[in-house]
Specification:
The chain has about 220 residues and is of the alpha+beta class. The chain has a single domain, classed as Peptide deformylase (Peptide Deformylase, Alpha-Beta Complex), CATH 3.90.45. About 30% of the residues lie in helices and about 25% in strands. The longest helix is centred in the C-terminal third of the chain and has 29 residues. The protein is globular. About 5% of the residues have low confidence. Keywords: Hydrolase, Iron, Metal-binding, Protein biosynthesis.
Length: about 220
């Protein structure tokens, strides 16, 4: 019997232009077996752990399953210690600054403070190098979700974490933060976005070729 392959250390992050990032993701259960394209079947917990490692390597604060090619309603996120001044001038290991980790399955957001905040700058690991202020987000939200043990949880957060959760749930509905800004903002980045689309197509072609070769070897 062939031994199961070890989980990958990190996943490739899908870029703007990848169709999976525009799909509405399907619900997921903690007992599901998931297959990230290019990798073998993994448990939801294994996928979540690898997503966290992927997020840390990319120096992000959140990562949704569609961003690794998996169209399910799951995201990971972290709260970091606010010690940027202490770390100024050096790349500190992000794990040393983690206060809380979140893994949310099938999250449902409810706005608890309807006042809008546009002051934060947003970016996205699937649109690297592009950051914009002015994205309107509710100041506080409640999230109902399932954890990795199958328990139903409710969490209420405000300010930055509320923004992170809204950003990640947007990904589960096929929405980018740029979609929440005037169209001319996207046009301002057309050159960069077109380059990402080309890179995304190249990655998908390579992934399809690798899958074709794998199937041929298994015949």
């Amino acid at each position: 019997m062939k031994a199961p392959s070890a989980p990958p250390p990190v996943y490739p992050i899908r870029l703007y232009g990848d169709p999976v990032l525009r799909r509405k993701a399907r619900p997921v259960q903690p007992t599901d077996l998931l297959t990230v394209p290019g990798h073998g079947p993994q448990t939801v917990r294994e996928v979540a752990n690898t997503m966290l490692e992927t997020m840390f390597e990319a120096r992000g604060v959140g990562l949704a399953a569609p961003q690794v090619g998996l169209s399910v309603r799951m995201f990971v996120a972290v709260e970091y210690a606010d010690d940027e001044e202490e770390q100024e001038g050096r790349e500190a290991p992000l794990k040393s600054r983690v206060l809380r980790e979140f893994v949310m399955l099938n999250p449902v957001l409810t706005v608890t403070d309807k006042k809008k905040d546009r002051s934060y700058q947003e970016g996205c690991l699937s649109i690297p190098g592009i950051y914009e202020e002015g994205v309107s987000r509710a100041r506080a939200v409640q999230v109902r979700y399932t954890d990795l043990d199958g328990q139903e949880r409710t969490l209420e957060e405000g300010d930055y974490l509320a923004r992170v959760f809204q950003h990640e749930v947007d990904h589960l509905d096929g929405v980018f933060f740029l979609d929440r800004l005037p169209p001319e903002v996207t046009e301002d980045y057309r050159k960069e976005l077109t380059a990402m689309q080309r890179k995304s197509r190249q990655f998908l072609n390579e992934l399809a070729e690798a899958e074709k070769q794998r199937r041929e070897r298994s015949l």
